[in-house]
C-alpha cells in the first residue's frame, strides 16, 4: 500500500489532488446524466488508533457522510444495518457483508490524536467489484481543523466516484443579517461551505453588501457605506485589514468582482442618473471606463480566463444579460427570454452563466450557455437572487428571502440540474454568498 | 408640562427620527433645529410650527416623492412636492440636502442600487431646474436596503419607491 503523506495544516499546505482514474466498474456517477437513484455508501466510524482519539472517529465518519449525502448523489446505509464492523483499518474487507446491505461504496478510516495534532487515514472500496478504488490517503493537521480533514476525505471520495473535483473543503463569504426588516444590520462573515466555523470580518455599523472572494480566497471585495456613500472596499481575510478602493466625490461605486489575475477589479460606478462599468487596478488605483451608455450597466463578472465580461444592462428597456470583451467595446446580448435578468456569474468551468430571473412576480435562479441557449431555471420563490458557483461548477448557492414584515434572508444551494435544493444552516439571517476556492 | 416644552420634545423626536440611519449623510447637521433656544412669539424654533425647521420641511413641505414600478420619471404629484422643496430651499439658504434614492424589494440588489441613483438624480435635477444651486445638493442610493414599509405588496412597495430630501445644516449650520 502506498500512502501519500500530506500535511494538512490550517493555513497553507501543498495538496496534490489524487489522480482520478476513470472507473469502468459500477461505482461511477455521471453528474451530467442527472442522478435519480443516489448511490448507497457505508462509512463506519473511523477506527480510533489511540485513547486520545475519543469520539473523533465517529465525528469524522458523520461529517464525511453529511458531505456526501448533501450532494444528493449519495445515500448512507445506516450503521444499524451493518453486518460487520471495521475495528482494524488494515484488516481485509468482508465484501460479502457490505454487498448484503447493498453498500456500493465503503469508506473506512482511522484517526490518531496526539495533543492538539491528529492524523486521519482513509480508504475507499468498490464493494461490488471487490476492490479498493484509488489509493489510501493520510492527512495530518490540528485537532481544531478536524472538519477540514473530514471534508478532504469526502472530497476525495466524491472525486473518485464522479470524476469531478470536490467542493467540500471550501469557504463561503457572505453577509450576516440581524434586526428588523426596516432596520437590517449587516456584517461580513466567512464560513465553511456547510455553515460551520462562522467568523465575522466586519462590524455592523455600516451597510455592507455583496462580498466577492478573490480566486485564491485570500481577499474579499465588497460594497460598504462606511464613508457615508456606497464604495468598493478590499479586505484581507487573514488580517481583516480593509481599505476603500475608489472614492470619487459625487459618485457611488458597487458590484465589484476580481479579475482572475487578482489585480484588476471590475465594478459599477454611478454618476448622476447613470451607472456604467469600470475597471480599477488594485495596485495603482488607475481606473478605466468600459461602458458609456446612458442606461444602467452593472453586475459584471469575468470569464474564467479573464478575457470577457458578462454583465446586466437595461439598454433595451428591461435588464438583460450581455457579454463584452474585458477591454470594453460593443456587447452582445445573450438573454432573450421573457422577464428581467440580472446578477450574471460566469461558471468556473466556463461553460455556463448563472443568473437571477424575475418573471411574472416570481424570482428564479437559472443557468444558460454563454450564447443564451439552453436556459434552465433551477428555482422559484418570492425572492431568489445572487447565485455563486461551487469551485467545481456543479452546485450553486444563492440568497432566498421570505416575504412580509418577518421576511428573512437564508442561503440555499441547488445542483445545476435543479435537483437537491437545500438550505445552508447559518446562525443568523444570511445573504449574498460568494463561494471561495477548494482549499489547499 | 407646558405646551412649549412638549413642542420642543416633539421637535427633538422628529429630528432624531431623521437621524436614525448611521450611514446617512449630514445626520448631525440635520439636528440643527435643536440648537435654537428661547421663544419667538408662539412658535418654537425647530418645531413643526417653525417654517424654517427641518420638521416643517418634512411635514408641511413634504420631504419625499414616490415613483411607479421600475420608473425614475417624476409624477405630477412628485413635481409639485419638489416645487415646494425648491421654494423652501431658496428661502432657507443655509441648508444643504442629500437626496436618498430607494427601491422596493422587487429587484436584484445591484440593479436597485442603480435604480435608486436614477430616482435620486431625477429629484436633484428637478430641484436644480427650479433654481436650487447644484452645490447644495448631493445624492445617494440605498437600493432596497432601507425600506420604510415592510409588507410585501404594492401598498408598501409604493411607499418604498422614493426619493427623500434629507436636510443638513440649518440654524447652526
Short descriptors:
heterodimer, A: 440 residues, mainly beta, Rossmann fold, Neuraminidase, 2 domains, 8-stranded mixed β-sheet, 4-stranded antiparallel β-sheet, 3 helices, 32 strands, elongated, disordered N terminus, B: 173 residues, alpha+beta, 60s Ribosomal Protein L30, Chain: A, 4-stranded mixed β-sheet, 5 helices, 15% strand, globular
Plain-language structure description:
Chain A: Belongs to the TolB family. Chain A: Part of the Tol-Pal system, which plays a role in outer membrane invagination during cell division and is important for maintaining outer membrane integrity. The complex is a heterodimer of chains A (440) and B (173). Chain A is mainly beta and 440 residues long. Chain A has two domains: 4-162, Rossmann fold (3-Layer(aba) Sandwich); 172-438, Neuraminidase, CATH 2.120.10. In chain A, 9% of the residues lie in helices and 43% in strands. In chain A, strands 1, 2, 3, 4, 5, 6, 7 and 8 form an eight-stranded mixed β-sheet that branches. In chain A, strand 25 (352-359) and strand 26 (362-369) form a beta hairpin. In chain A, helix 1 packs across helix 3 (146-162). Residues 1-24 of chain A have low confidence and may be disordered. Chain B has 173 residues and is an alpha+beta fold. Chain B has a single domain, classed as OmpA-like domain (60s Ribosomal Protein L30, Chain: A), CATH 3.30.1330. Chain B is 39% helix and 15% strand. Chain B has helices at 3-17, 54-62, 76-91, 109-129, 154-160, and strands at residues 64-66, 95-102, 137-143, 162-169. Chain B has a four-stranded mixed β-sheet with strand order 1-4-2-3. In chain B, helix 3 (76-91) crosses helix 4 (109-129). The A-B interface holds A 180-184, 205-207, 209-210, 225, 228-230, 250, 252, 254-255, 268, 270, 272-273, 275, 296, 298-299, 312, 314, 318-319, 340, 342-343, 356, 358, 382-383, 385-386, 401, 403-405, 407, 432 and B 20, 22-25, 70, 72, 105-111, 113-115, 117-118, 121-122, 124-125, 138-142, 145-152.
Amino acid at each position: 500500500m502506498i500512502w501519500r503523506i500530506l500535511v494538512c495544516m490550517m493555513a497553507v499546505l501543498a495538496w496534490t489532488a489524487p489522480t482520478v482514474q476513470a472507473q469502468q466498474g459500477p461505482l461511477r456517477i455521471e453528474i451530467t446524466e442527472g442522478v435519480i437513484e443516489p448511490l448507497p455508501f457505508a462509512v463506519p466510524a473511523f477506527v480510533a488508533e489511540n485513547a486520545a482519539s475519543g469520539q473523533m472517529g465517529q465525528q469524522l465518519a458523520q461529517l464525511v457522510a453529511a458531505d456526501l449525502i448533501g450532494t444528493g448523489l449519495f445515500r448512507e446505509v445506516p450503521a444499524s444495518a451493518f453486518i460487520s464492523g471495521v475495528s482494524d483499518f488494515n484488516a481485509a474487507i468482508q465484501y460479502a457483508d457490505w454487498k448484503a446491505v447493498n453498500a456500493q461504496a465503503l469508506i473506512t478510516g482511522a484517526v490518531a490524536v496526539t495533543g492538539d495534532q491528529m492524523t486521519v487515514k482513509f480508504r475507499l472500496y468498490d464493494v461490488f467489484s471487490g476492490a479498493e478504488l484509488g489509493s489510501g490517503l493520510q492527512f495530518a493537521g490540528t485537532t481544531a481543523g478536524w472538519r477540514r480533514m473530514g471534508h478532504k476525505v469526502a472530497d476525495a471520495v466524491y472525486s473518485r466516484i464522479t470524476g469531478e473535483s470536490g467542493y467540500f473543503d471550501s469557504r463561503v463569504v457572505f453577509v450576516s443579517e440581524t434586526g428588523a426588516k426596516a432596520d437590517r444590520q449587516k456584517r461580513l462573515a466567512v464560513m465553511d461551505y456547510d455553515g460551520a466555523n462562522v467568523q465575522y470580518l466586519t462590524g455592523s455599523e455600516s451597510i455592507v453588501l455583496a462580498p466577492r472572494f478573490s480566486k485564491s480566497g485570500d481577499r474579499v471585495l465588497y460594497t460598504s457605506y462606511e464613508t457615508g456613500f456606497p464604495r468598493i472596499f478590499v479586505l484581507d481575510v487573514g488580517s481583516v485589514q480593509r481599505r476603500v478602493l475608489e472614492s470619487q466625490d459625487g459618485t457611488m461605486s458597487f458590484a465589484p468582482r476580481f479579475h482572475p489575475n487578482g489585480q484588476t477589479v471590475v465594478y459599477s460606478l454611478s454618476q448622476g442618473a447613470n451607472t456604467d462599468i469600470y475597471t480599477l487596478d488594485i495596485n495603482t488605483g488607475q481606473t478605466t471606463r468600459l461602458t458609456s451608455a446612458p442606461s444602467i450597466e452593472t453586475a459584471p463578472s469575468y470569464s474564467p480566463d479573464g478575457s470577457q465580461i458578462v454583465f446586466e444592462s437595461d439598454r433595451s428597456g428591461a435588464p438583460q444579460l450581455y457579454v463584452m470583451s474585458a477591454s470594453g467595446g460593443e456587447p452582445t446580448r445573450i438573454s432573450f427570454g421573457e422577464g428581467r435578468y440580472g446578477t450574471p456569474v460566469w461558471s468556473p468551468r466556463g461553460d455556463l452563466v448563472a443568473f437571477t430571473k424575475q418573471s411574472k412576480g416570481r424570482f428564479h435562479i437559472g443557468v444558460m450557455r454563454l450564447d443564451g441557449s439552453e436556459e434552465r431555471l433551477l428555482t422559484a420563490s418570492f425572492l431568489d437572487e445572487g447565485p455563486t458557483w461551487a469551485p467545481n461548477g456543479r452546485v450553486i448557492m444563492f440568497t432566498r428571502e421570505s416575504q412580509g414584515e418577518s421576511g428573512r434572508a437564508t442561503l440555499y444551494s441547488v445542483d445545476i440540474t435543479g435537483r437537491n435544493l437545500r438550505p445552508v444552516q447559518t446562525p443568523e439571517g444570511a445573504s449574498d454568498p460568494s463561494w471561495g476556492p477548494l482549499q489547499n | 408640562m407646558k405646551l412649549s416644552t412638549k413642542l420642543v420634545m416633539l421637535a427633538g423626536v422628529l429630528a432624531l427620527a431623521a437621524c436614525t440611519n448611521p450611514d446617512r449623510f449630514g445626520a448631525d447637521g440635520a439636528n440643527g433645529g435643536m440648537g435654537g433656544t428661547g421663544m419667538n412669539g408662539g412658535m418654537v424654533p425647530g418645531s413643526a410650527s417653525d417654517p424654517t425647521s427641518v420638521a416643517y420641511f418634512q411635514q408641511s413641505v413634504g420631504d419625499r416623492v414616490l415613483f411607479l414600478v421600475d420608473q425614475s420619471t417624476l409624477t405630477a404629484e412628485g413635481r409639485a412636492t419638489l416645487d415646494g422643496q425648491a421654494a423652501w430651499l431658496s428661502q432657507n439658504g443655509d441648508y444643504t440636502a442629500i437626496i436618498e434614492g430607494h427601491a422596493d424589494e422587487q429587484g436584484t440588489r445591484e440593479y436597485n442600487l442603480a435604480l435608486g441613483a436614477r430616482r435620486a438624480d431625477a429629484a436633484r435635477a428637478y430641484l436644480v431646474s427650479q433654481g436650487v444651486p447644484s452645490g447644495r445638493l448631493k445624492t445617494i442610493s440605498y437600493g432596497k436596503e432601507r425600506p420604510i414599509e415592510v409588507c410585501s405588496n404594492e401598498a408598501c412597495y409604493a411607499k418604498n419607491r422614493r426619493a427623500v430630501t434629507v436636510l443638513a445644516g440649518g440654524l447652526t449650520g
